Each structure stands twice: as structure tokens, then as C-alpha cells.
Amino acid sequence: MKLSSIQIGWTLTVVTAVGFLMPWARFAPPGAFADQAAIVAQLAADDWLRDYVLMTRRDWRLLRQNPAAGATGFQVALAERGDADDAARALAEILCGGTGFKNKLLALIPLLAVGGALTLTRRPPARRWLAALTVAELAVCVALRWQLRAAYVDRLALELNWGWWLTWYGLALLALTQLARLLLPSQVKW
Amino acid sequence: MLSGVRAWYLLTLSGLMSLLAVTDSRAITHTIKPGDTLYSLSRVYGVSVNSITAANPGLDATALRVGQQVTIPDQAERAAAPPADPPPAPATPSAPPVYVVKKGDTLTTIARQRQVTVSDLKVWNRLTTTQIRVGQKLRVAAPATPSAPAAGAGATGKYLFVSKVKKQIDAPRRAHAWKYIVVHHSGSGSGNARIFDYYHRSRGMENGLAYHFVIGNGSESGDGEIEVGGRWSRQLPGGHLRSDGQNEVAIGICLVGNFDRERPTRKQIAALIELVNYLGQRATAADYPRPRFVLHRDINIRPTDCPGRNFPAAAMYQMFGAWQGE
């Protein structure tokens, strides 16, 4: 069965939106900082593929532990300053450099995805809109991973859960789908 | 979702139980701060994790909440603790320095038993992973210094950042009992030891560079490059704190950068972790207490933001033990 770009786009939009409502992060149990030699090795390594695209082994391992626990993407976007024990606030500070207006921008993620899927649906696609949304989605994906990379030791206090990864990979794959549609000639049906 | 709700009730229940628990008047009540763990509390107060959990029935070690009250048993309580729950054997000189791995042991459990870090065990045993096997002999104490213990025999092991300046760090022949390792940021986007030395001399500091170590950010020195200052080589007091008394006993490490605006680079943090560990192991090897890690703003007698709001303070205190003041 050959899937069209519209089917793929809407599936990835649903994945992104559902991920946004699922747990993104929870506080790590004691011991996250015990293996300092490994932390130093991770910090010293320059591996852009692991930092910007893939998941680490630790991230993958954590997904199997307590998948229902943690603050959702929605809660991260609405986190307020002062909730010191709030994993949502801690992640908001890592991703957005603070709480308040900045982290509310995270709520644009599902809107971007819906916008992207709607633009894909239109025949022929509005190329300018599709290009703008693709660039915006890719920029969001890179910026989020860049912030996680820069705040690596802060991030160790948190464990990223299913919701975060579904949202991130959903949005990234949607952007790539849109990019592929954009690069194909408009007369090609996909 | 259901497990999340259940976990919430368990958390609430354990919190209430710990609040309702009758506390011994000799015990200390600690309020959990961000980054606190039972292990870090055990290191700060010098008690075992077992005795803290014994003093706090219902406490879930994996779900500490900020603001939660935890009872820390005092020395007398620890001494009188029943033999069924003895505190882990401290890594005293009388404890055997070699441990034979038994079934079920992990580096973490062994490190906790001997009150050392997993990192220490890896360095002392030249382990590259946390894999150990039953029957394996592990060194569980710092290697003894053969002759002059304070002369910087240092710790053995492979270092990514310290190795380049290990000789310089170990060069001082005169011992100095440092109590603290204080971390600063330079507050400037660029710089290196030579530039700061010039600046501090121009401000009237006859010994020049006020810090013992400078860690570069890739601007005027390498990213994560450790530079050893003259005050370390001559084991002179620093000039990095307002109080002369504190300068006498505090090693100053400056990370180049303004961490109110930017974050320290990954390599700067990696170099800092290594340097703090190395200086700690060096002190232990020389029979001195391990210097305590503290940020400039937490020890200075005048208010300061140094080392900036973007410095990963909670994470670093979780690594090296929370600062409770003196």
C-alpha cells in the first residue's frame, strides 16, 4: 500500500499532538550523577548525530521505566516560575531559558504540525506556505535539541519520556515529509 | 495514567508519614532542595543512606520532593543503631583497600558501602565501563602515596582534560590544607589566565591572577583547557573571595564566560568535573579532607551572582554534595 504525503502528514501530526499531551519529563532518581567519568566523556564528545538526531542509550532505556509518569508538553508550556519541585518548570528552563512568555511558545508545536498537514492537504500545495512551515518546524526541532545539548548536565536531573520523543520525532518527520513534497515537481502526485 | 495517580497517592502518603513521624530531638530536619538525593545528604551529614531511610519510615528514595522534610539521625543515633541496619563501612585506613566482587554487587552499591564515588572506583581500577564480574578484585580506596603524601602524588587514571596539566598540578612540593573549591565565572565573554593575571596585577594584586585555575571557553584559550595559575604553583592563598580568611583555604577555579548571558560550554563543565575530582583525590591521597565544592555566590560574604544564573548549580551540587553553609 502506497501512502500519500497527506496520509503521512496527518499521521505525523496526530503523533506530534498526542505526544504533546503525553508525559515529557520527570525528575531522575538519585544516582543520575554517580558515573561522573561517563558524564565527562559525554560532554567532551562531539557527536552531532547523537546530539541533534538520535536518542542516547540512556534515553532509550528510560522509556521502558514508568512511561506514564511526568509532566506533559502542555504542562511544560504552561509552567510558571516558582514551582521549584516541578519537572515541567525545570524542562521549560532548559528548553526556553526560563518560564513565562518564552515557554508558552512551545504550545505552537502542535499548531505548526496542524498547519503543515493542512498545507500538505491542499492540491496543489501552496509552496510558499509549505516552505515557511517546513523551515519553522525544522528550526524548532534543531533549537530544542540545541538547548538540550547545551544544558546537558541540567538535563541529567530529568528523564525524558515518551511524549517528548513522539512530539520531537513527529514534528521532525513531518518537516521532512513537507520538504520532500516541496522538492518534488508539482505535477507529481504523492 | 493510573500508575501516575497511584504514584501520586504513594508520594503524598509517604510525605505525610514523614511529617507525622516523631523526630528525635537530637536529629536534624533537612528540607529537600532541588538536586538533593539521599546519597548527597548522606555525604553532607556524614551518615549512611540506610540510617536516613531508617529514620524516615515510608520515605521513597526515588521520589524526593523539594520542600519535603527529611530527618537526619545524629552521631549518637548512628552509633546506637541496631546491628541489623549498620551504617556502611567507611573507607577508613583500617578498611581493606581491596574488595572482592560478590554476586549482585554493582559499582554503585560498592561505592555506597565504601562512601566513595563510582567515578573514583573507575579511576582507581582503570575501568572504562561499569561492568564488573564476580570474583574481580577492586581497589576501593585511593592509592597510597609512597613518599611525601602532600607533594602531589595525585590519583592514577585517565583524564581527558587534567592530563595535559597534571604535572603542573602535582608540581607543588609544599602542602596546603584546602577546605573549599570555589567556582567563579569571569563575567567576560573572553579571556585566559594571562589576561586575567595582567588585569589583577593592574588592580594592585602583587601575586597576580586571583584564581588558582582558569578553564577556557575557546576564545583566548582552548575550549575546556585548564590553565594553572601561579598561586597554585606556589600554593598561595587566592584573591578571589572578599574574605581573606576564606581565601586562605579556598581554591579558586574561574570559568571564562558570562554565565548570566550564556551557558558554560560542555567542555568547560567536563573539565571542571575532572579538575574538582582530581583535586579531591589529590587531597585524599595526601590525608587531607576532600575540599568541598561551592559556588562563589554561596560562600562570599558579600552578595554576588557569580558564577551566573546559567551555571548548572543544582546539577553540580548533586554531583559533589549540596552546600549547607559553614
What brief labels describe this structure?
heterodimer, A: 190 residues, mainly alpha, three-stranded antiparallel sheet, B: Membrane-bound Lytic Murein Transglycosylase D, Chain A, Membrane-bound Lytic Murein Transglycosylase D, Chain A, Lysozyme-like, five-stranded mixed sheet, two-stranded antiparallel sheet, globular
- What proportion of the residues of chain A is helical, as a percent range? 55-70%
Largest sheet data of chain A? 3 strands, antiparallel
Number of domains of chain A: 1
Beta percentage of chain B is: 5-15%
Order of helices and strands of chain B: HEHHEHEHHEHEHEEHHEHEHH
The averaged pLDDT of chain A comes out at 90
Describe the largest sheet of chain B: 5 strands, mixed
CATH topology of the largest domain in chain B: Lysozyme-like
- The helix/strand order of chain A is HEHHHEHHHHHHEH
Q: Give the name of the CATH superfamily of the largest domain in chain B.
A: Peptidoglycan recognition protein-like
**Average of the residue pLDDT scores of chain B:** 76
Work out the helix count of chain A.
Answer: 11
User: How many domains of chain B?
Assistant: 3
CATH class of the largest domain in chain B: Alpha Beta
Category by helix and strand content of chain A: mainly alpha
Overall geometry of chain B = globular
Multimeric state? heterodimer
